[in-house]
């Protein structure tokens, strides 16, 4: 197979060109060509088949302690072809868009089918979709000196924040991704998905004590992202956390009230609750939410939403990787489980419409039900009242991620920025704080929900079955009446 990184060109949009997907020197995909591939894939039968064409350009620059240490980039392209019969999936991919290579992949994928019956192949027609992330100038196309200048601005802002900042690292990653999804249901949909992410980390030292801090952000933006959030803001925030952590003290261990700060705390919701609501786990009966639609699963103050339609958010998509146009989904409504996130296979299993949640890392992988932008809806409480209601507890602001057991919802999360709450006031910064609990149990202890909803700046990537996809999270200030806190002292 010819590897795509040897190619250097771009694709043509099906909304503006006769050839909807073409890489110079390769095969141009038209509805007629796509129909031929679908027919070959379904030659042995099957419920449905789809084609997933992808073209991706990426660049990265990393600066370590003021010096550019690495510059990377690449181009990748190919097609993944899937045939589904019941819950069985045949899948093959080609890194070449030459006709013979793609037909061989289609035939390989079709070997899963054995009935000889096909539920029908609709006439393939192009379909226009709305764009939620129009970008005039993508970061991936910006000259190297422009991208390096962004990193230097972040570096200088962090260093000038305080004399105790002794090291700053920064990285800028940008991606231009084009996809064309063709389904035997008749849809042929094209999308362009830009992405940018800036990450800054800093190290502070006072005497013999050394602490760190970080800040990241981005989304489906171009260079216009830095008009919203400047590199200087990320640099200063990374330095701020490092300086604060120089004064951090040991975290008290035990069962305590925990206040989740608005914004990044949504990652706890994503991991501890969201994965259990992905319908493949419910279909396989490995989720703790299996067979619980319509049941109370959380406090009546809790409403959980997955919304891929938020403009320019990191987890937003115009179309999922199965060619389904997504919409907002209420997963938990006032404490009651309202439904799951479906791909085509799980939707057929449960007898519902797919939710547009089928996502994949690349054309080399099969789509799976995945979250997009997952968050808890705002409530009516003032954030300051939530803090004042806590006699002694933890205020959780930033997380480094965590681990969750999908089957029962048990989780562990580490804080990179957290504080002690004493007599209704935020006091000492804490070191080594971990939040330990169970997702459904934690949601049942929610007693206050703030009106200050914040969508986290685009920094999160979610892993599942070896595949990583960008996601968004969000949260208002939320009070959990009790949660196990793992620390360094027992009180």
Describe the structure.
The protein has 491 residues and is an alpha+beta fold. It folds into 2 domains: 4-245, PmbA/TldD fold (2-Layer Sandwich); 250-490, no CATH class. Helices cover 19% and strands 39% of the residues. It has 10 helices and 25 strands. Strands 1, 2, 3, 4, 5, 6 and 7 form a 7-stranded mixed β-sheet that branches. Strands 10, 11, 12, 15, 21, 22 and 23 form a 7-stranded mixed β-sheet that branches. A 5-stranded mixed β-barrel has the order 9-16-17-19-24. A hairpin with a 2-residue loop joins strand 1 and strand 2 (67-85). The longest helix is centred in the first third of the chain and has 18 residues, at 144-161. The radius of gyration is 24 Å and the shape is globular. It starts with 30 loop residues before the first helix and ends with a strand.
Radius of gyration: 24 Å
Question: What is the 3D shape?
Answer: globular
Distance linking N and C termini:
62 Å
Overall number of domains: 2
- Which stretches of 5+ consecutive residues score pLDDT under 50? 1-19
Largest sheet: 7 strands, mixed
User: Can you say what the CATH homologous superfamily of the largest domain is?
Assistant: PmbA/TldD superfamily
Which oligomeric form is depicted?
Answer: single chain
Helical amount: 10-25%
Q: Give the structural class.
A: alpha+beta
β-strand number: 25
Task: Supply the number of helical segments.
Answer: 10
Give the mean pLDDT. Answer: 91
CATH architecture of the largest domain: 2-Layer Sandwich
- In CATH, the topology of the largest domain is named PmbA/TldD fold
């Amino acid at each position: 197979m010819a590897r795509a990184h040897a190619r250097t060109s771009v694709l043509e949009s099906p909304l503006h060109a006769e050839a909807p997907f073409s890489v110079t020197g390769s095969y141009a995909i038209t509805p007629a060509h796509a129909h031929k591939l679908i027919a070959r894939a379904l030659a042995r039968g099957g419920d449905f088949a789809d084609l997933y064409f992808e073209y991706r350009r990426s660049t990265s620059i990393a600066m370590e302690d003021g010096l550019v240490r690495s510059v990377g980039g690449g181009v990748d392209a190919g097609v993944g072809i899937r045939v589904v019969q019941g819950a069985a999936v045949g899948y093959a991919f080609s890194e070449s868009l030459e006709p013979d290579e793609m037909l061989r992949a289609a035939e390989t994928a079709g070997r899963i089918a054995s009935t000889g019956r096909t539920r029908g192949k609709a006439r393939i027609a192009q379909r226009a979709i709305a764009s939620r992330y129009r970008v005039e100038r993508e970061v991936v196309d910006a000259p190297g000196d422009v991208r390096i200048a962004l990193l230097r601005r972040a570096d200088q802002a962090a260093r000038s924040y305080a004399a105790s900042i002794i090291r700053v690292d920064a990285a800028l990653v940008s991606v231009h991704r084009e996809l064309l999804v063709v389904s035997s249901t008749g849809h042929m949909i094209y999308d362009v998905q830009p992405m940018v992410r800036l990450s800054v980390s800093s190290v502070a030292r006072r005497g013999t004590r050394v602490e760190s801090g970080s800040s990241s952000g981005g989304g489906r933006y171009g260079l216009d992202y830095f008009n919203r959030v400047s590199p200087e803001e990320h640099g200063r925030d990374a330095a701020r956390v490092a300086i604060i952590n120089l004064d951090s003290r040991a975290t008290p261990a035990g069962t305590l009230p925990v206040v989740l700060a608005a914004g990044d705390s949504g990652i706890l919701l994503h991991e501890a609750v969201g994965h259990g609501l992905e319908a493949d786990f419910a279909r396989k009966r490995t989720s703790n939410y299996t067979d619980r639609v319509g049941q109370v699963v959380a406090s009546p103050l809790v409403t959980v939403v997955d919304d891929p339609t938020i403009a320019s958010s990191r987890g937003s998509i115009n179309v999922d990787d199965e060619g389904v146009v997504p919409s907002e989904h209420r997963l938990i409504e006032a404490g009651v489980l309202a439904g799951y996130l479906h791909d085509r296979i799980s939707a057929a299993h449960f007898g519902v419409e797919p939710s547009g949640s089928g996502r994949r890392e690349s054309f080399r992988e099969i789509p799976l039900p995945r979250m997009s932008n997952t968050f808890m809806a705002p409530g009516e409480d003032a954030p300051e009242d939530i803090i004042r209601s806590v006699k002694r507890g933890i205020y959780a602001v930033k997380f480094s991620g965590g681990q969750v057991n999908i089957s029962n919802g048990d989780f562990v999360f580490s804080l990179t920025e957290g504080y002690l709450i004493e007599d209704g006031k935020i006091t000492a910064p804490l070191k080594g704080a971990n939040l330990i609990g169970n997702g459904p149990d934690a949601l049942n202890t929610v007693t206050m929900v703030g009106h200050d909803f914040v969508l986290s700046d685009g920094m999160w990537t979610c892993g599942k079955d070896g595949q990583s996809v960008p996601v968004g999270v969000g949260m208002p200030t939320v009070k959990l009446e009790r949660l196990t806190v793992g620390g360094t002292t027992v009180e």
